[in-house]
Specification:
The structure holds two protein chains of two kinds. Chain A is an all-alpha fold. Helix content of chain A is 75%, strand content 0%. Chain A has a domain of 192 residues: Orthogonal Bundle (MetI-like fold). Chain A contains eleven helices and no strands. By secondary structure, chain B is of the alpha/beta class. In chain B, a hairpin with a 2-residue loop joins strand 9 and strand 10. The chains are: A mainly alpha, B alpha/beta.
Chain lengths: 285, 264
């Protein structure tokens, strides 16, 4: 028992030291902005000022007021409530996309990077072929195959995101393959898959986390783009891209609508990219 | 005989002209024996060690001959069989202690890895064995070191950890590839003494590779001298040091620095 407390105390100390050491302003900004976004979305999941789908003909295209903090859209729905719901949808899709992308990316990149040789050649040429398509176009093709809807978007974008993650993981694994501690693991007869996922993967964590955040940003933008084009989230579900495309009709009569939605999107993306940049900056110095 | 190497030839084919790094090498190691391989850089010492440990690259080279260990030819058996021997019966410690430990894993985890892969011991049994191994290599406070990360240890301590990881599974053969080269002289002496102790206590055969003849002479029963991939001379340590037959061996021995009073 005594030893347990001793240990606990030590880890506690090292975390505190870590926090004291890392003071990159970019990282702090990123953490603050991301926390605000997450809080905003979490509150939106529990309660919104108005029902996000309730229409009110009397306040159609209403301006900013204390009653409606961001005004109302062309159906008289409260924009703040819809932004809250829409951000949640967007973040959910982005998260699913990144998870699919990174899961398959890690497996493909790890096999290509660790084994090298023929496996590397075959996997990477396939990867290059997939990378040759712009990811949004690839996602378009996939959506036309699978159909629309939020789970199909996740699948389509996820597949489109695999190649870039696979590349990052592969280069990390090639770097590590020659390290003495990996040779040591090979020497004591550890199975190659155990070496890849237990010995090498944790060493790539930092690079992976920052590329995951950047990928997350791209996924947010890609989802907004698809919904803007009308092939993403289907109405009446709210999504930031969908709302932007609705807002463009009133760009001059009610610029507040587009500004509020676009501003939220920028805030989300900026927060996560600050976080990603901050982490990779810390990893360097 | 624990290990018998017959007519080992290692040839690299990844350049335009094939390059042979080990020529027709015969070597036999008895149980519990301490055997030294000496030679200058590029004489094929490390390649021989890697061949025994099964760590030679799979592509771009040609290997012939055989290495018999417990009725298995290490050079030609399949990888699964090889993996079951690596780490359990044959272990190896590398030259560079600073990079041989995984930076994100705790010392204890790395010492235990061998047991985790090769045995079905429970967590507490593994802990016991790892702490015992850390104590065996004369590290102070092994329980504390068990929970540390590599960057918290000095080079000498890390090399001790590497040795602990190599002996935790009670191997029959330990290959020490230039393990003292990166350490300073006082630590070198301690590590060498430690190897001798492990050899006595656990009856582990040790293949000690070095270019430092004075260290080899101090601990090994038998010495093999290598040059340019060929074995130059082989024999009991005393015979090699006192009555070397080959000219090259005599030159190597003459190159050992002697402690004499220096007139200033």
């Amino acid at each position: 028992m005594k030893q347990f407390f001793k240990q606990n105390h030590k880890t506690d100390n090292s975390i505190r030291q870590m926090l004291r050491k890392r003071k990159s302003p970019m990282l702090i900004t990123g953490i603050v902005m991301t926390s605000i976004v997450l809080l905003f979305v979490l509150i939106g999941l529990i309660v919104t000022p108005y029902d996000s789908e309730a229409m009110d003909a009397t306040s159609k295209l209403a301006g900013v007021s204390w009653k409606h903090l961001m005004g109302c859209d062309n159906f008289g729905r409260d924009i703040l409530s819809r932004v809250m719901k829409g951000s949640a949808t967007t973040l959910f899709i982005a998260m699913g996309t990144v998870l699919i992308g990174i899961a398959f990316g890690i497996v493909i990149g790890a096999i290509a990077g660790y084994f090298g040789g023929l496996a590397d050649e075959v996997l990477m040429r396939m990867n290059d072929a997939a990378l040759a398509f712009p990811s949004i176009l690839l996602a378009l093709v996939l959506i036309s195959l699978f159909g629309t809807g939020r789970y199909n978007i996740i699948l389509a974008l996820g597949i489109a995101f695999v190649p870039s993650f696979a590349r990052i993981v592969r280069s990390e694994f090639i770097k590590q393959r020659e390290m003495d501690y990996i040779r040591q693991a090979e020497l004591i007869g550890v199975h190659p898959f155990r070496i890849m996922f237990v010995h090498m993967l944790p060493n790539s964590a930092r690079v992976l986390v920052s590329s995951l955040l950047i990928g997350f940003n791209n996924a947010v933008l890609a989802e907004a783009g698809l919904s803007f084009l009308g092939i993403g989230v289907q109405p009446p579900d709210a999504s930031l891209g969908r709302m932007l495309s609705e807002a463009q009709a009133y760009l001059f009569s009610r610029p507040g609508y587009a500004l509020c939605v676009g501003g939220t999107l920028i805030f989300i993306v900026l927060g996560f990219s600050f976080l990603g940049e901050g982490i990779s900056e810390d990893a360097k110095g | 005989m624990l290990l018998e190497m017959k007519h080992l030839n290692i040839e690299f084919h990844n350049r335009t002209i094939p390059e042979t790094v080990v020529h027709d090498l015969n070597l036999a190691i008895k149980e519990g024996e301490m055997i030294g391989i000496v030679g200058e850089s590029g004489s094929g010492k490390t390649m021989t060690a890697l061949a025994i440990a099964g760590l030679l690259p799979r592509h771009g080279m040609q290997k012939s001959g055989e290495i018999q260990f417990q009725n298995t030819d290490l050079l030609h058996c399949d990888r699964k069989k090889l993996r079951s021997i690596q780490g359990k019966d044959i272990t190896m410690v590398f030259q560079e202690p600073m990079t041989s430990l995984n930076p994100v894993k705790k010392i204890g985890w790395q010492v235990e890895e061998c047991l985790r892969v090769h045995t079905d011991l429970t967590k507490s049994e593994r802990y016991q064995k790892a702490v015992t191994a850390l104590a065996d290599v004369e590290l102070k406070e092994p329980e504390k070191i068990y929970h540390m990360y590599p960057h918290q240890l000095s080079g000498g301590m890390r090399q001790r950890v590497m040795i602990a990881a190599a002996i935790v599974s009670n191997p029959q053969l330990l290959i020490a590839d230039e393990i003292t080269t990166a350490l300073d002289v006082t630590i070198q002496a301690q590590i060498v003494k430690l190897l001798k102790k492990i050899n006595k206590l656990q009856n582990t055969a040790i293949l000690f590779i070095s270019h430092d003849l004075s260290l080899v002479g101090r601990i090994c029963d038998r010495v093999i001298v290598m040059k340019d991939g060929y074995m130059v001379e082989e024999g009991p340590t005393d015979q090699i040091y006192l009555h070397a037959k080959e000219e090259y061996t005599k030159k190597l021995i003459a190159a050992i620095p002697k402690c004499e009073k220096i007139q200033l």
